[in-house]
Amino acid sequence: MSNSIPQNELSKQIEDLVLGFVKENLEVILKEEMKNFFEVENPELSSSKNGYYERILDTRYGRIPDLSVPRDREGFFQTELFDPYQRREKWLGEAIIEMYYKGFSTREIGSFIERILGNSYSASTISNITDVVVEEIEQWQQRPLRKRYSVLYLDGTYLKLRRKDVDSEVVYIVVGVTDEGYKEIVGFHAGGKESSLGWKEVLVDLRNRGVEEVLLAVFDGLTGLETALKEVFPKTDVQRCITHKMRNTNHSVRKKDREEVAEDLKKVYRVNTKTEAMEKFKDFKNKWNSTYPKVIKSWEEDLSVLLTFLDYPKVIQPQIYTTNTIERTIKEIKKRTHSMNSLPSEKALEKIVYLVSKEFNERWEKRVIVEFTAAKEELKEMFKERFGK
Predict the structure, then answer these.
(1) In whole angstroms, how large is the CA radius of gyration of the chain?
(2) Model pLDDT for residues 324-368, shown as the tens digit of each residue
(3) 360-369 burial string, b = 16+ CB within 10 Å, else e?
(4) Nearest-CA neighbor of 14 among 65, 66, 61?
C-alpha cells in the first residue's frame, strides 16, 4: 500500500507552510515596529501599550485569518505595513487592474481571487476596484496637449458594447508624432457610429486642449473627414492612406488581374517626386482605363491627397503614406478585448482603451522615432513656412 500524499493535499500543505511563514514574519515585523515606536522614538508613551488584536489580511500568498497586530490604548501606534482599515495588500488591487487590462472578464478575475484567497469577489466588486482608473481617465482626457504635432494619425475601430442590448460602437483614436519625434496616443473617444461629425468633435477637443499647429493628418477615406479636419485645422495637409486605397482597389478588380494592377500602382507612389508619380499614373491609366474605368476615376479623384507624402522629407515618407502606425495600436486594443464577448458599459470600454494607451505612451516616451529625428530640421522649416514661427 502506497504512503504517498495525493498531489492536491501536498500542494495544500506547501501553501499552508508558506502562509504560516509569511504570517510569522509579518508578526515579527509588527512587534519590532511597536518596540521601536515606544522604546526608541516615544518612550514617554510606553505605558499606553495594550496587547494585541487579531485581524484578517489578504496577501499574495493567501488569506491570513488571524494576524496578531500590536495596539495601544490611545491609538498612537500605526504600522507601516498596511492602513488601519486595509483588508488587502495593495498588490491585489494592482493585480485586478492588470488582469482586467489583459482582457480577463470580471468573472474570471473573481474566480482567480477565490483560488488564491479562498473567498470570491463579485463581478461588481471587481468593477468597483477597477474604477480607480476612472478618475485617471478623466484627468488624462482633459490633460493639456502640445502645441505642435508633425503628424496626427486618425482611425476608428469597433468594439462590442452592451447597453440595453449588444452592438458594435466606435472608438475614435488619435496617435500623434510630436515635433521632437516622439509618438503618443493623443486621445480617444468612444460611442456611436463613426462619422465626420464625430471626428470633428474629437478634433475640436484636441484644439481646445492646446493643439494649434499640425503639418499632416493621415487617415483613410471616411466621407466628410477631410472637410471636418480643414474646418478645425485649415493649414494641415491631408494624406489619405494608400494601404486602404490599395485594399479597396483589390476588391474592385478581378482576381486574375489583382497582382498586376497592384504592381503597376506601386510604380505610381514608389517614386521621388509628384511629377514622376503623375507620369507613372498616366501609364497606369492608359493600360487599365478600358478594363477598369471606375478604378481609374477613383484614383484620379483622390490622387492629390494620396501623394501628399511626397512633399515631406524622404526619410519619413514610409511612415506617413499609410495608417499602419495607428493600426498596430488598434490591433493591441482588439487583442485585449478578444476574450470578452462584449463590454458591459461605456465606462468599461474606456478603462480598457485607457490602460492600453497608458502602456503605449509610457513605452513611447522613452524612444524617439529615428526617422523623424533625422528629418527634424526639415520639419522645423516646414512649420516656420506654414505657420510663420
Answers:
(1) 30
(2) 989 888 888 888 777 666 777 788 788 888 888 888 998 999 999
(3) bbeebeeebb
(4) 61
Tens-place pLDDT, residues 69-85: 888 877 777 776 666 54
Sign of CA dihedral 378, 382, 383, 384: positive
Among the ranges given (22-36, 123-137, 175-189, 239-253), the one the predictor scored with the smallest mean pLDDT: 123-137
How far is it, in rounded angstroms, from Cα 128 to Cα 178? 36
First CA to last CA across the chain, in angstroms? 89
Task: Look over the chain and give the mean of its residue pLDDT values, rounded to a whole number.
Answer: 84
Instruction: Give the largest CA-CA distance in the chain.
Output: 101
Do the strands 237-240 and 166-178 form a parallel or antiparallel pair, or are they unpaired? unpaired
Strands 213-219 and 148-162: parallel
The percentage of residues in the chain with a pLDDT greater than 70, rounded to a whole number, is: 80
Residues in Cβ contact with 275 at an 8 Å cutoff, skipping those fewer than 6 apart = none
Q: Which candidate, 260, 361, 266, places its Cα nearest to that of 322?
A: 266
DSSP 230-287: HHH-TT-EEEE-HHHHHHHHHHHS-GGGHHHHHHHHHHHHSSSSHHHHHHHHHHHHHH
CA distance 174 to 160: 20
Q: Which residues contact 184 (CB under 8 A, 6 or more apart)?
A: 175, 176, 178, 360, 361, 364, 365
Burial category of 306 from C-beta neighbours within 10 Å (exposed 0-12, middle 13-18, buried 19 and up): buried
C-alpha cell at 200: 470633428
> For the whole model, what pTM was predicted?
0.72
Per the CB < 8 A criterion, the answer to whether 111 and 120 are in contact is yes
pLDDT in tens, 91-150: 566 667 677 666 676 777 777 766 655 555 666 666 666 666 677 888 899 999 999 999
Beta bridge partners of 326: none
Q: How far is CA 336 from the centre of its chain?
A: 10
Quick one: which of 249, 225, 247 has its CA closest to 155?
Answer: 225
Whether residue 56 contacts residue 67, with contact meaning beta carbons closer than 8 Å, is answered with yes
Domain range annotation of the chain: 7-132, 147-387
131: Cβ–Cβ under 8 A, 6 or more apart, which residues?
Answer: 347
357-361 long-range contacts, Cβ below 8 Å, gap at least 24? Answer: 357/140, 357/185, 357/188, 358/140, 359/101, 360/184, 360/185, 360/329, 360/332, 361/184, 361/185
